[in-house]
Amino acid sequence: MTTTVCTGVSAAAFPSFSSYVRARGPVLLRTARSLTSNVCDAEDLLQTALTKTYLAWERIEDHNALDGYVRRALVNTRTSQWRKRKIDEFVCDELPEPETVPAPDPAERQVVRDALWRAVLRLPDRQRAMVVLRYYEDLSEAQTAEVLGVSVGTVKSAVSRALGKLREDPELGHAA
Questions:
Q1: Mean pLDDT of the chain, nearest integer
Q2: What is the average pLDDT across 92-103?
Q3: 132 DSSP 8-state letter
Q4: What does the alpha-carbon distance between residue 51 and residue 7 come to, in Å, rounded to a whole number?
Q5: pTM of the prediction?
């Protein structure tokens, strides 16, 4: 990781700072990455925190605790960035939110359910059993076949015929 500190003071003034950044840079970058949403922001955050650390280098008494100092600078800088975040608002002719579709009337939904159930009751017993197991009990075709002791092909063809009858039911045509 190459770190360029633009403070007006050369990095040669503090060779220990340069060696610290070379040695601990990758670890500090991982810390910065955990505070941001992408790598570029993490690199910028680390650069800013290292600049602050460089400016305070002579005042830091315990150089054994530098990681803690830089981590605190990372967190404080990120918090400041978050607080200063700019929220852009744009005036537009149309609202970006989709229009909400009104919920169907519960009474109308009940009328449709009742009509559907009456139509299912008009199916032959075997077809009705297969439709109920497949769509009300949510069993697979194989499970339905096993419960009724028939082949999967029988379930498929009987359910297909039953759905055809339901599509043609005159009461359902008016209820939908």
A1: 84
A2: 74
A3: I
A4: 7
A5: 0.43
